[in-house]
Amino acid sequence: MEEVVLRLEGATYRHSVYAPLPLKPWRRIKGPGIFEINLTLQKGTILGLVGPNGAGKTTLLRVLAGILPIHRGRVYSRSEEIVLDRQQLRQSVGHMPEQVRWQGRKTVRQALLELGEMRHASEKRIDGILKLVGLSSRKDSALSELSQGMRQRLTLAVALLGSPKILLLDEPLNGLDPVGAAAFISLLKTLTEKGVSIVLSSHQVEGLAGIIDRLALMHRGHILAEGTLKEVAKGLHLDSKTEIKGTGQVPHFSNYEIQDEDVEIEIQDNHWTARLEQAQPHLLAKLINDGVEIAEWGIRQPNVVEMLCAATGQSIEDVGLEVASNAYVPLRTFGGEEE
């Protein structure tokens, strides 16, 4: 059983937003935020926090980092007896915000030394962090000379100054090219091997399944599903799909007792691709026996986008482009029906 390092129970935070009236120009009301969040962080694992823009991911990370106060609920440490306050959270959590503008003539090492004073980090500790994040060779470079990938590494270095047990990363792969992203992910894997727990927030879900150990789907301030990829897919009643690529004439799948609505077919030139809603392990032999020209065959597991669509009950377009309103209510819970 994995060791628990932090647990949220019923955590709620709502932003204060302006709602002026003619006689009350400075009136504020409680607006969007996060609602009744239950979440467990385990030692040495990467939790992917996924949802569209406005889902509440950044707000949740700021609550975990001790930046925002909890209006209702509790944060527990490893022991369920100990409730953590914001100051205690700041001591054990490292936070990497979405974007930090590193500019100026100050060198990388100088910037870290100044920030390290607040965390009581020694020069030896700072040099060790520079080596860990791969910036030792650029420690004397000016901040303005850094590439986007190097700036991301520097921001991560700052988050690591206090030797945190938990690392919170808000959209850490934004702006990185494929090579830079792969190097950054490799660095995160190294940190988990040292026992650091990582929460990675992202609305870019392509390739995320190969990075994370667990997944939490967020929408409108709620966590709709959380667990391993298999657990989430099972909870959302998503099955594996069969993907077939072939040439020549497209077979009539109805002849194989497969309904038309359970097959998605794409045709391009002389090639076709068929996606079946369920795994069909015995179909390949039947197609070959009937002379169908098969080029590729595979059983594909549900991806993160499909899980998010299933959890919210919306299409890919709706999930990706939706601007959430102040009335945040769950569309679907992990094991239940739409509400």
What does this protein structure show overall?
By secondary structure, this protein is of the alpha/beta class. 27% of the residues lie in helices and 28% in strands. It has 10 helices and 13 strands. The chain has a 6-stranded mixed β-sheet with strand order 5-6-7-3-8-9, sandwiched between helices. The longest helix is centred in the middle third of the chain and has 16 residues. The C terminus is likely disordered.
Would you spell out the secondary-structure blueprint of this structure?
Layout: E1 4-18, E2 28-42, E3 46-50, H1 57-64, E4 72-76, H2 86-92, E5 93-96, H3 108-116, H4 123-132, H5 148-159, E6 166-170, H6 178-193, E7 197-202, E8 214-219, E9 222-227, H7 229-235, E10 241-247, E11 263-268, E12 271-276, H8 283-289, E13 293-300, H9 304-312, H10 316-321
Parallel strand pairs: 3-7, 3-8, 5-6, 6-7
Antiparallel strand pairs: 1-2, 1-4, 8-9, 10-12, 10-13, 11-12
Summarize the structure.
With 339 residues, this protein is α/β, with parallel strands linked by helices.
Main sheet summary: 6 strands, mixed
Order of the strands making up the biggest sheet: 5-6-7-3-8-9
Helix content: 25-40%
What structural class do the secondary elements suggest? alpha/beta
Query: Strand-residue fraction?
Result: 25-35%
Shape assignment: globular
How many beta-strand elements? Answer: 13
